[in-house]
């Protein structure tokens, strides 16, 4: 296949459209430059790093308008580690999980493998749709994903009716949603994410906004596990009470990547200065609308998620006709420097997947759609 060269004037200014890791803005790299001699290579137990952690915690509290008593807690290991924190430190007996894609399936698998928990009750639906757990007797924790990154589906976040009376917690995987999709934190008990998606940082960290009920639950589970004869082992790395204690001191249990913290702090500052979550989510809405609108009017593409209300404004998935192999489109775009628009491998569709997080300029998203058309016409 001959190389297709997209005219320079058509190319997006920034050519990164990954669904995580995602675009890191030049201003974040400048912040890293400034930190290079004063922060990088210094102790995370001393003021310069603790001040950054404190600034991130305050910045996120403001960004998400967290209710009184909620706390911003963080630790190492990313959202994947937090799934196991939920199993070790939050679920008392049994969880109910919404399962509708690779990421929402993974926490269910973690719960399933915890020997001290009852098998989870699954509420499953086909990829491209979502399924919220229903109130279930005996369940003490409800889990689902606000944005299922593998399929580009967005699900609502609310307290399941009757769950509060049950004393049950609502745990939301917001890894690709946080910072891109509106949320009312009061509807959640653990709203958790990694910083390499909408927050344009590096991976390796988890952040979780915890309600007073979640904090109390973690303390209760720890007390129960320390009783003689109790069957539960809480590995120190997965101890939420330990993460809470450390976070209150603006620290983490073990050494964090300082680059991740510096990039994240700069992004939170930028988002707050521009108008916070309402601004960020409106921007993502605008970018995602550009792609959905383009796909709906394209002769060879269509949005994968058929229900418009379930279409993610953070990660956009677009099916292509079989006559237009996505692999060839992706390769031609990559030849021109446009990267990371592949569909989720395990979903196995002839698909493009485009991350439209706040860092991405809507004008670049528009340019991307023209570049896709340009390439497809010449394949
Ligand atoms: C990316 C992602 C994860 C995994 O995040 P890691 O930082 O790699 O652990 C989990 N859940 C969702 C919804 C994601 O998009």
Automatic annotation (TrEMBL):
Molecular function GO labels: alanine-glyoxylate transaminase activity; L-serine-pyruvate transaminase activity; O-phospho-L-serine:2-oxoglutarate aminotransferase activity
Aminotransferase class V domain location: 143-343
Organism superkingdom: Bacteria
Keywords associated with the record: Amino-acid biosynthesis, Aminotransferase, Cytoplasm, Pyridoxal phosphate, Pyridoxine biosynthesis, Serine biosynthesis, Transferase
InterPro entries with a match to the protein in the record: Aminotrans_V_dom, Pser_aminoTfrase, Pser_aminoTfrase_mycobac, PyrdxlP-dep_Trfase, PyrdxlP-dep_Trfase_major, PyrdxlP-dep_Trfase_small
Enzyme Commission number, as recorded: 2.6.1.52
Ranges for region Disordered: 1-22
Any single GO BP term: L-serine biosynthetic process
Co-factor(s): pyridoxal 5'-phosphate
Pathway(s) per entry: Amino-acid biosynthesis; L-serine biosynthesis; L-serine from 3-phospho-D-glycerate: step 2/3
Record's function text: Catalyzes the reversible conversion of 3-phosphohydroxypyruvate to phosphoserine and of 3-hydroxy-2-oxo-4-phosphonooxybutanoate to phosphohydroxythreonine.
Family per record: Belongs to the class-V pyridoxal-phosphate-dependent aminotransferase family. SerC subfamily.
Name assigned to this protein: phosphoserine transaminase
Organism: Bifidobacterium choerinum
């Amino acid at each position: 296949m001959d190389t297709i060269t997209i005219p320079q004037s058509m190319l997006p200014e920034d050519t990164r459209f990954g669904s995580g890791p995602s675009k890191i803005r030049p201003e974040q790299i400048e912040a890293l430059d400034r930190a290079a001699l004063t922060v990088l290579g210094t102790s995370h137990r001393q003021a310069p790093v603790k001040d950054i952690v404190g600034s991130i915690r305050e910045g996120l509290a403001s960004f998400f308008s967290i209710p009184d008593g909620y706390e911003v807690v963080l630790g190492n290991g990313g959202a994947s580690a937090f799934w196991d924190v939920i199993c070790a430190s939050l679920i008392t007996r049994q969880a109910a999980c919404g399962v509708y894609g690779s990421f929402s399936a993974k926490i269910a698998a973690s719960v399933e493998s915890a020997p001290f928990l009852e098998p989870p009750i699954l509420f499953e639906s086909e990829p491209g749709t979502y399924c919220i757990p229903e109130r279930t007797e005996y369940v003490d924790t409800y889990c689902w994903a606000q944005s299922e990154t593998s399929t580009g589906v967005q699900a609502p976040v609310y307290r399941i009716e009757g769950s509060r009376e049950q004393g049950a917690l609502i745990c939301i995987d917001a890894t690709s949603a946080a910072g891109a999709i509106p949320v009312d934190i009061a509807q959640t008990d653990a709203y958790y994410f990694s910083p390499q998606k909408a927050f344009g940082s590096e991976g390796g960290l988890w952040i979780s906004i915890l309600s007073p009920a979640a904090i109390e639950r973690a303390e209760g589970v720890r007390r129960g596990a320390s009783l003689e004869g109790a069957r539960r082992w809480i590995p120190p790395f997965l101890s939420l009470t330990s993460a809470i204690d450390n976070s209150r001191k603006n620290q983490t249990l073990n050494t964090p990547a300082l680059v991740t913290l510096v990039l994240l702090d700069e992004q939170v500052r930028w988002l707050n200065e521009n108008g916070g979550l309402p601004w960020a989510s409106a921007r993502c809405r605008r970018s995602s609308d550009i792609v959905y609108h383009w796909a709906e009017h394209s002769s060879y593409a269509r949005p994968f998620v058929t229900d418009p209300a379930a279409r993610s404004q953070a990660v956009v998935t677009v099916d292509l006709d079989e006559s237009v192999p996505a692999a060839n489109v992706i390769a031609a775009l990559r030849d021109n420097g446009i990267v990371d628009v592949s569909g989720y491998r395990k979903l196995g569709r002839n698909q493009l997947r485009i991350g439209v997080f706040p860092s991405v300029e809507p004008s670049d998203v528009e340019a991307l759609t023209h570049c896709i058309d340009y390439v497809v016409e010449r394949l």
